[in-house]
Amino acid sequence: MNNEQKPLLIILGPTASGKTKLAVQVAHRLGGEIISADSRQVYRGMDIGTGKDLSEYVVDGQAVPYHLIDLVDAGEDYNLHRYQQDFHRAVADIQSRGRVQVLCGGTGLYIEAVLKNHAYTAVPVNEPLRDELETLTEAELLHRFTLQPSPFTPLADTSTRKRLMRAIEIGAYLNANPGAVEQSSVPRYNYRIFGVDVPVDVRRQRITTRLHDRLTEGMVREVEDLIRNGVSPEKLVFYGLEYKFIVQYLTGELDYATMIARLETAIHQFAKRQMTFFRKMERDGLTIEWLDGGESTQWMTEQIVDRYLIFT
Description:
Elements: E1 8-12, H1 19-30, E2 32-36, E3 43-44, E4 58-59, E5 62-63, E6 66-67, E7 72-73, H2 80-96, E8 100-105, H3 108-116, H4 127-134, H5 138-147, H6 161-176, E9 191-197, H7 200-217, H8 219-228, H9 233-239, H10 241-250, H11 256-283, E10 288-292, H12 297-311
Parallel strand pairs: 1-8, 1-9, 2-6, 2-8, 3-7, 9-10
Antiparallel strand pairs: 4-5
């Protein structure tokens, strides 16, 4: 690494932890730019449901630049391998201007993949296998995943149906083509990771409040517009969480009250799985400095800025 390059600063946390607001404040203080680590915010038109909250990227009237948001149209295929490539380009761009790169998000798999330079993400798509897997329940998918171990197994993120299917796909490829993919776990960046750990009861309340706010802001209408603009309901269900349950409501599968109740439960479960994956990242050798998310954004900002400046 070029010693003149500023270290990569990472701020991660589960949904509703306040990590985006924190990262923007930190980037503003350090003269930095945000790189999003969110697997769904890459899609244009999926704004309310993915919580882009682009209004937060302004501090004292000054816009904080951001990257890897609104990259492709909703419905277009986008994967981890493409994200790695886009991420490396964004880092090079920010470094070329001598600014600090602040990677922020809750998709632990994306963060781990760019730090450890995972090569398994280049495994090609297997459409016949995907068609077969689509017919299986989540429990059946998990059982199949455990029955077919591969070199990718200890690295896999199985927190969503989409990622579980991809993990099976990668495992099947590696077992059929041993040695075809050379994997490196050596980080290519000098980095420091900070995590926002919010007490469970506080996180749950924030999730509930935020869900109702987003429904008021027009989240159902957003999904209706996506369908009207040609994104298939099946694709939206594949994106999970808000899009899955709202599609089920719009197609009459769920009534409104049931949709809200099931969606809220699913978001709570998702946040728990995010934390589980972050703990796995730690067990796999990535050091995360956890901050008390119950403290103020100002306090956490000072903690990160002070430690980062000492680090550099």
